[in-house]
Amino acid sequence: MSSWQITGQYMETCNCAFLCPCITSNLTAQPTEGDCKAAVTLHIDKGAKDGIALDGLSFVLILHSPGPMGEGNMTVGLIIDDTASDQQLEAVSAIASGSAGGPMAALAPLVSTNAGVERRPIRFEVDGLNYAMSAGELVDQACEGLPSVTDPEQAIGIDNTAHPVNSRLSLAKAKRSRFHAFGIDWEDATGTRNGHFAPFAWAG
Question: Cα separation of 175 and 140, whole Å?
């Protein structure tokens, strides 16, 4: 019996030009800017850990990889919704770090620096193929999915990826990315950078 499970929606933007080579190379390619800076946001629609309800909470992983992600040496910081109680913060931290098992446990060996945890008010919005979120003054990002010709209400997707959130990701371009947190800084509003979104279902 799993001690925790969460389901919801995810989005991210990064500093790579579209399409991010990490996805198509199983994390072995050099990022387009030489390093990788990304903000990965998960909004929990429903979930609990050890009896602690996590419904409605959001959290953001801010990460930096100095080269190909598969080579490790990554720095990761965590931002959690400031509405979370101390118990909820502890639960989400364990899930996000991989210490509670689940998908993030596979990524944990690539992380050399845990940059800490911040609390901020997190806004997460979905409107069709448009995703947006902000975390106080630390993060502001938005992306727009690439509509499929056969069904414009659905984004083009890529399957069987090594991504920890979901093996199937919708392809998107970042409309804006701004993050200044844990010493990781990036700003772009050109519409040429990479983004993704997907539903997720995690358990551990």
Answer: 10
